[in-house]
Amino acid sequence: MFKKILIANRGEIAVRIIRACREMGIATVAVYSEADASAPHVWLANEAELISPAPESESYLRIDSIIDVATRLGCDAIHPGYGFLSENADFAEAVIRAGITLIGPSAETIRQMGSKTAARAIMQAAGVPVVPGYQEGGSDAALTAAASSVGFPLLVKAAAGGGGKGMRVVRDPTELPDAIQSARNEARSSFGDETLFLERLIEQPRHIEFQIVGDQQGSIVHLFERECSIQRRHQKIIEESPSPLLVANPDLRKRMGEAALKAAAATNYVNAGTVEFLADDAGNFYFLEMNTRLQVEHPVTEMVTGVDLVKLQLQIAAGEPLPFRQADLSQRGHAIECRIYAEDPASNFSPATGRIDVWEEPSGPGIRIDSGISAGDEISIHYDPMLAKLIVLGDNRTDAIDKMKTALNETVLLGTLRNNISYLRDVIEHPDFRVGKTTTNFIELHLSDWKPSQPDYPDELLITAMLADEADHANPGLNNMADAHIDDPFSPWRQSDGFRVGV
Amino acid sequence: MTQIHYQIDEHEQSIEVNPQGEFLRFTVGEQTYQVKPIKITENSAAFIVNGRYVKAHFSKNQGTGSRQIWLDGHTWTVASVDPRKRRQQHSPSTETGALTASMPGQIRAVLVEVGELVTKGTPLILMEAMKMEMRLTAPHDGVIAAINCAVGDVVERGELLVVMDGS
Predict the structure, then answer these.
(1) Which of A61, A106, A199, B24 has minimal Cβ neighbours within 10 Å of its Cβ?
(2) What is the structure's pLDDT at A491?
(3) Cα–Cα distance between A2 and A319 in angstroms, integer?
């Protein structure tokens, strides 16, 4: 087993990985940018090093600096987390060249699956159903000629793309030329590669992905599905396992699971990964992409299967065989995850940076919170705005929804930033969510006009405000606004006869 | 007796407090509440109101007189207001055509020049924050009078970016 691991990431996933290492007695090294100098992952690790300061947004992308720290501090492995360098084949190769183990699949697998068109071709050859499409790239003329055989409506997509960038919907052949131009421009500026491909647009699909894991001895299993249909602008906000569609249709789960295993086998997959599909209510499903890393929403799989995926990743990377076979795995209960973001839903979800004054996490049976924040932290503009993930495990889906609602109601996040907690609550309370009618256009269909709906404030709010002002008043120097009003010599705040405000 | 005026989001309400033995009697409009504070800290208050147990959390009051208060799963912004000061206050003057950043971020592109004539809706500035791109567009037709930022600048919410003439 490894002696010391460097975590090339930040926030909640860095904390998650460090925790798994601690439980296994592995020493940890954190890297950080100046903006993250007081972040939880820095203080949880055994050692931490500042990565070259500017520009902040690139600190965690500095391959040379990261490998330099790992080498100097004697790390025998690096865990890349998700995002940043986790799917960068050059990074994987550089790590291996430095004689360090990368926790993840091979550089070759990372490179293969990193190209959407190459991935599709491999899957098609392996007999995994793919979305009808045209992936030979090429000129505008070639794309236009292929469009009719792909069928409308279709998507024009960037081959090197992701996150919804470089994508255009085309419903009518007349819209095609403009869509191609505009997608090329966005692809060139976002990814430096203007290669495009076409894909049929599957209307109102569900996004269902399978967790796969393979060991170095060649065994591959899947740990069932996660449904991630609740997305806003292609960004996932709520995920769950099992998928309501597959609960109603266990045969579909069996077929999709087999397809996921075929996909993994086609790439000789080692370590943890995810095969993403689009599925419709008619029982059709299509390969979308394969993610060669641990995903943000991995906790829902951990909750229903009881498997610690991060520890499993370390074991596999250290050469150990999978501790179970497919038949040993099962799903129990229902898990839901909500992502808490520093964004203002009342202001078109614009990033809402600021300082965290109060952060109280909910807890209790079946409640898990993966966070990378603590009170006093400043949330800056430099990184992804996800603050924490709240995950619950219930006996069934209804129980899980009730538990999530309760947990959201117990989560306290106050300060100068804004968050999406009230939005998440409204999503899970929506009647269509309650019955599992979740497709990728759920948000657009039901919450596009969402406005925060606050109940009328209770008078206890004002009582609290006065008590809070007194707490400040009792600690002068914190704030002197309260003094402006308390100029009454008979003020109860001035009396010393038993009225105490304690800390 | 102490009275404070508070502003809660868009509403205003005053509240009065009088000592009453070991309790405090709060009055809000027609309602009175008998309150016993149990534990008040820098960020939380636990108290009993007319026999009901209440726990609230609140953020710092940074000298702006405003703080966030969490109660029962909901959060409000509450500010203490001095009615005397408010009457004397002028409404904040906004320079005509002063365009400010609606969110913090980094300037990625300045798309116009001083002296340029633009129409309503023309994109003027591109900003980026948290991997999202936002654009500042001209709210009306006019001429760019001044540009107060440059590519690479990191700006705060409310900072002046562009000044436009005409409307």
Answers:
(1) A61
(2) 44
(3) 10
Indicate whether A39 pLDDT > 50: yes
Pairing status of strand B154-155 against strand B105-110: antiparallel
Res A475: pLDDT: 58
Which residue among B39, B58, B102 places its CB closest to the CB of A414? B58
Contact A374, A441 (CB under 8 A): no
Q: Which two tokens stand for residue A487?
A: 């100029």
Among A59, A65, A108, A105, residue whose Cα is nearest residue A86: A105
Chain A partners within 8 Å of B151 (Cβ): none
CB-nearest to A467 from B40, B76, B104 is B40
Residues A249, A251, A254, CA angle at the centre, nearest 5°? Answer: 120
The distance in angstroms from the start CA to the end CA of chain B is 51
> Which tokens go with A421?
């907690």
**Is the pLDDT confidence value at A381 over 90?**
no
Give B6's contacts (C-beta < 8 A, 6+ positions apart): A462, A465, B12, B13, B14, B15, B78, B79, B80, B81
Q: List pLDDT tens digits, range A46-55.
A: 999 999 765 6
Q: Between the ranges A202-211, A302-311, A474-483, B65-74, where is the mean pLDDT highest? A: A302-311
Chain B neighbors of A466, CB-CB under 8 A? 4, 15, 17, 26
pLDDT at B77 > cutoff 60: yes
Asked whether B127 and B105 are in contact (CB, 8 A), the reply is: yes
Distance CA(A93)–CA(A73), nearest Å, equals: 20
Q: Looking at residue B156, what is its pLDDT?
A: 79
Task: Decide if A15 contacts A87 (C-beta within 8 A).
Answer: no
List residues of A with catalytic annotation: 293
Q: What is the DSSP string of A25-61?
A: T-EEEEEE-GGGTT-HHHHHSSEEEE---SSGGGGGG
Q: Do A469 and B80 touch (CB under 8 A)?
A: yes
Question: What pairs with residue A450 in β-bridges?
Answer: none
Which residue type occupies A404?
A: M
Yes or no: say if A292 and A208 are a contact pair by the CB < 8 Å rule: no
DSSP strand pairing (A77-79 vs A4-7): parallel
Best A191, A409, A414 member to test B by mutation, with max B CBs in 10 Å, is: A414
Give the integer Cα–Cα distance in Å for A488 and A482.
Answer: 12
Q: What is the pLDDT of residue A469?
A: 87
Peptide bond into A452 cis (omega under 30): no
Beta carbons of A492 and B24 less than 8 Å apart: yes
- Cα A353 from chain centroid (whole Å): 19
Q: For A329-345, what is the mean pLDDT?
A: 96
pLDDT of residue A93: 98
Contacts of A343 (CB under 8 A, 6+ apart): A349, A350, A351, A352, A385, A418, A419, A420, B130
Residue range B115-129: mean pLDDT, rounded: 90
Within 10 angstroms of residue A198's Cβ, the number of other Cβ atoms is 27
C-alpha dist (Å) from residue A212 to A80, A103, A196, A268: 18, 15, 28, 12
Distance CA A425, CA A433 (A): 11
**Position A480 confidence tier, pLDDT thresholds 50, 70, 90:** very low
Tokens 């002028």, residue located: B90
What φ, ψ does residue A42 adopt, rounded to 5°?
Answer: -70, -40
Tokens of A470: 């007194």
For residue A214, give every residue at least 6 positions away whose Cβ sits within 8 Å of its Cβ, in sequence order, or none.
A220, A221, A264, A268, A269, A270, A271, A273, A316, A322
Residues A379 and A373 sit within 8 Å (Cβ to Cβ): yes
The residue behind tokens 């950043």 is B101
- pTM confidence score: 0.82
